[in-house]
Amino acid sequence: MLIRSFLFSCLLFLTAIPMQAQSPLPVILDTDIAGDYDDVGAMTLLHAFADKGEAKILAVISCNAFETTVPTISVLNTYFKRPDIPIGITHKAKPDMDCPQQWAQAIIAKYPHRVRSNKEAEEAVSLYRRILVAQPDHAVTIITIGFFTNLADLLQSGPDQYSPLSGRALVQQKVKALVAMATSVPPGKEKGREYNVYVDTEAARAVFEQWETPITLSPLEVGEQLHTGIPLTKDAAITDSPVKDAFSIALEKDKNTQGRMSWDQTAVLVAIKTPQPWFNERKINLRIEADGSNTLIPGERFTLLELKEGEKLKLQEYIESLMHHQPK
Ligand SMILES: [Ca+2]
């Protein structure tokens, strides 16, 4: 009996080890949601990983000042039963990228949300500092799927009510890694130009030069190979979903029958799951030019993701399946 009890204790101990190893990764998501709807897919992946116990969403912060951004974030957080996740937004008037397909206006009108306007959200840098200071050292992964406005402002921030540290020092102390959907590195070429960089070029340049944690880049060329959303719009098992509505409205307005490119979802995916088994990881350095283009230069500052031959369809199916995730 004693032996059996001892063996049972050992078994409990051994089964406890993997559970400890899988403690949820604390993340802050920085998004320009409204200009495009792959951000909706990315937020769905993040909530799916949170429901699986793999991610803890500390805050969602908008780098886009357009009027629908905060209510849209709140709609999605409320839908996924996390209405109290802190939401931040830049107080700069620009960048201000609108929602041409009007999907954001539609889901705000239809679905409940606790934070009803941009004015009700915290200022972006202040929220970053408040959240970061309360975390263990080198713990937080920041995922950016928009412009670099907030991250540059965070680096340039000074001591405040939350921390005596400069923004650079606070990032160095609290942040584990930055994963960005950004840049364009076409195969065999030295130069590319990508939206998340050129919308706020000065901010991107500041982050690329001054950010001191490991940085992983999912470039334009990865997400544009992965088309998602059409099966979601046809999934009859999903009803009353702002995610399905956003994709249905936007894909129809765009007359898109192939699916939306999945740029932002790739950043969330590799931040939580690591780049394996889907990607090759290539060490590079990049210089941001005045026109917002990026040029390859010698160095190993960034880890660039490159989609592996033969993994495209498997990854596309995996992202699509995560986008069908419904609240628990
Ligand atoms: Ca985006």
UniProtKB/TrEMBL annotation:
What GO terms are given for molecular function? Answer: hydrolase activity, hydrolyzing N-glycosyl compounds
- Residues annotated as domain Inosine/uridine-preferring nucleoside hydrolase: 27-295
- Protein species of origin: Chitinophaga agrisoli
Alphabetical keyword list: Hydrolase, Signal
Q: Which domain of life is it from?
A: Bacteria
Q: What is this protein called?
A: Nucleoside hydrolase
Signal peptide stretch: 1-21
Q: Which SUPFAM superfamilies match?
A: Nucleoside hydrolase
